[in-house]
Amino acid sequence: MIGYIVRRIGTSIVVLVGVSVFIFALLHAIYPSPAIDVLGARANTALIVAWNKQNGFDDPWLVQYLRYMGHLLGGNLGYSYKLNQSVTALFGEVWARSAWLSGASLVLSLVIAIPLGVYQAVRRNTFGDYVVTGLAFGVYAMPVFFLGLILIQVFALSLHWFSFEGSQSTSLLSIIADPRAMTLPIVTLTLLTVASFSRYIRSSAMDVLAQDYIKVVRAKGLPERLVLVRHLLRNACLPIVTLVGLSIPALLAGNLITETLFNYKGLGLLFYTALQNVDYNVLLAYTLIGALLTVIGNLVADIALTVADPRIRLA
Amino acid sequence: MTAASSLPPLDVARAPEGGEIGAVQSGWRLALREFTTNRLAVTGAGILLFFLLFSFVGPVLYHGNYLTSELVSTNLGPGAGHPLGTSNQGYDELALLMKGGQAALEVGFFSAAIAIGIGALYGAISGLVGGIVDALLMRVVDVFLSIPFLFIVLIVAVRFGASVLSLSLLIGGFSWLVPARLVRGEVLALRVRDFVAAARVAGAGQTRLIARHLLPNAIGVVIVNVTFQVADAILAIAALGFLGFGLQWPNQDWGDLLSNGVSYLQDGYWWQVYPVGACIVLVVMACNLVGDAARDSLDVRLRRR
């Protein structure tokens, strides 16, 4: 067990190094130097060369990579020449807003998807199951922004229940206390996640329902409610661990589009503005963080699964 | 309830006697029959066919203006001359939908072909060679899978501009990982089978083994995956267009149209938003339906093999 975890962490570190090299090399090839952004479009070549030399942008890219990673490990994510701030400070201002949006919708989608999937498995091939499956299939095929648009049209523009914009407050507490502004963004992300999670939970619960031990507890006369809660749920939830771990790239992408759609100033919107301004260091840092979160997600999912399910003992 | 109990009872009189070889239907024909009896699958295939005709034959039959802005006819509702209304530039929405459909389907299928091509070859080589090469190649797949796909696609698309070709290469270049893993898994299972050993004894080299024996047998999983790749690619290009980094004028994609329409949502110009949204959802849903059914029918083929 310990050996497996250690080896798994080892491969994760190797993968992380590989990802960071790839992302750094790719972005470096695309944007070799921010000199023009700093000096202006009319700067002459000699000035640019001098600036590059002074700031280390004429070193071989491997040297630049190692220097960047050195800074990164010390918590320095570089400098945004477009916003004249350190990237660490920029991220520090907004990360909690993104964490609230993604975290709340992830928790909410689990709270909805698990009972929904179990309900579908227990009542499989009934009218209710078909309705839920159909809805999930439709939402699953929907681009995030179209889903958000429909919600805005119905609940913000027609019914005036909620705001069509995310909260603009800078304090996390007042954001949390502002359901009028935050309901639609959170619901948009939640629906999207529920649509994919509930399909997995349905099929996993169906597998468990066919097991002998469920027949045994039913045969000994346990009320159906207890069969479901005590015996079915725990085993049917195992794939959730993997699902959540693997859903991080999708969450990040959904976060980017939702924040843009609702003009909610989190990491996703910051990345979007950086795309428009070609703010190299912000793009690099956020892509690297996204990769880091993905690797950690996979790692935690694998380890959690071996802890939760003693039948899994990977060699 | 289970598959076994729903089978018809064995008809002893008609069952083949031991040693008798009846006319065995090929696995592919079985799969095809299973597919065509699935109503949802046929619906999905029908929707895809409709959109192919709509996007590529439609413009031949219907000549709407999508090139020159006409300021006298902006934001018109559906009516005579403009069955689906006009955009904020006075373009005809129906013509825009057809144009956008071309881009979506072209990028979808082209990038899926690229992803499958690279993935199948990569997976087959990795699985067949095995050992340390396999381990290395699969770590590379792990690395690529950890890259936030949308972020990188956005960054590269912003820098180099988006065309149908560049977007297809870009999306295809980052989505061959799942097919590579699937094909590797199949090849690992296939390469220990007798027919591969026989081919090897007969003197087949690695290239011939892969091209003639392994890939054709692993192609089933690949076919299933193609449909999901197409769906994902269409969603990706829609997201790019919506964020404003999609195809450049005069090319139009559906995401682009949607983001134009959003600005007028408050004015109630529904025809600029909902038809194009419905197009995206329908095409993606059709791909998913076909994919699900293809997987089910492939299971049938494998069961009877």
- Percent range for β-strand residues of chain A: under 5%
Number of helices of chain B: 11
Structural class of chain B: mainly alpha
Q: Cα distance, first to last residue of chain A?
A: 9 Å
Q: Radius of gyration of chain B, rounded?
A: 24 Å
Shape of chain A: globular
Structural class of chain A: mainly alpha
Helix fraction of chain B, binned, reads 55-70%
Give the assembly state of these chains: heterodimer
Note the beta-strand portion of chain B.
under 5%
Along the chain, the helix and strand elements of chain B come as HHHHHHHHHHH
Main sheet attributes: strand count, strand direction, barrel closure of chain A: 2 strands, antiparallel
Rounded to an integer in angstroms, the radius of gyration calculated over CA atoms of chain A is 24 Å
Describe this entry's structure for a reader.
The complex is a heterodimer of chains A (315) and B (305). By secondary structure, chain A is an all-alpha fold. Chain A is 77% helix and 1% strand. Chain A contains 15 helices and 2 strands. Chain A has helices at residues 2-30, 35-39, 45-54, 61-73, 87-122, 127-140, 144-158, 172-176, 179-209, 212-219, 224-236, 238-246, 248-261, 267-277, 280-308; strands spanning 79-80, 85-86. In chain A, a hairpin with a 4-residue loop joins strand 1 (79-80) and strand 2. In chain A, helix 1 packs antiparallel against helix 15 (280-308), helix 7 packs across helix 13 (248-261) and helix 14 runs antiparallel to helix 15. The relative contact order of chain A is 0.13. Chain B is mostly helical and 305 residues long. Chain B has 11 helices and no strands. Chain B has helices spanning 27-37, 39-61, 93-129, 131-145, 149-160, 164-173, 177-190, 194-201, 206-242, 254-262, 274-304. Chain B is elongated. At the A-B interface, helix 1, helix 6, helix 7, helix 13 and helix 14 of A face helix 4, helix 5, helix 9, helix 10 and helix 11 of B.
